[in-house]
Amino acid sequence: MVDRVELAIIEKSKNIIDFFEKTSPYEIISIYFLVDLSNISFIREYLIKQNYTTRLFIHIDENGMKKEYIYGKLKGKNGVFNEHCKNSVFRKNIQDIVNISSNSGDSVIIDVNSNIIVNENRNFIYI
Predict the structure, then answer these.
(1) Considering the entire predicted model, what is its pTM?
(2) Among 2, 48, 70, 111, which residue's beta carbon has the most beta carbons within 10 A?
C-alpha cells in the first residue's frame, strides 16, 4: 500500500526524476516544484506524464521577490481545497501554502534544508 501525501513543496532540488524516485513509496496529491527558465518545460512535461494537471504558480513574498513554481495536482484525486488556485499569483508567505493546502494530521513533503516553518499539526517528511 502506498502512503498518501497531501502536499509537497520542493525548492532545493532541481531534478524532478530524482525527487520522484526518492518519494516512490508515496502518492503525492499536490506538488509545488520551484523552477527556472532552464527546467520549467521539462518539469511541467514530466508532471503531466506522471498524471498531474499543471499550471504555473508565481509566489511574490513580502519583500516583492518573485519565485516561479510548477503546481501539479494528481488527476482523479480529491485534495484539500487550494484557495490560491483561483489565481496563479500568491502574495502571502510560502508557509501559508502548507496551511491552505493541507489539513491537520496530513503528511507534507519538504526539502531537508527548507525555510518552511514546521507546524506540529502536520506530519513532515524531509527529502
Answers:
(1) 0.88
(2) 70
List Cα–Cα distances, 25 to 34, 36, 38, 44, 64, in angstroms.
22, 27, 28, 22, 37
| Burial profile 70-97: b = 16 or more Cβ within 10 angstroms, e = fewer | bbbbbeeeebeebebeeeeebeeebeeb
- In angstroms, the CA 34 to CA 14 distance is 8
Set of cell numbers at residue 127: 527529502
Beta bridge partners of 52: 74
Pairing type for strands 107-110 and 52-60 reads unpaired
Read off the C-alpha cell for 12. Answer: 532545493
The DSSP H or E segment spanning 107 is strand 107-110
- pLDDT, tens digit, 9 for 90 and up, residues 19-61: 999 999 999 999 999 999 899 999 999 999 999 999 998 888 8
Cβ proximity of 106 and 76 under 8 Å: no
Report the pLDDT value the prediction gives residue 14, as an integer from 0 to 100.
80
DSSP letters spanning 1-35:
-PEEEEEEEESS---HHHHHHHTTTEEEEEEEEEE
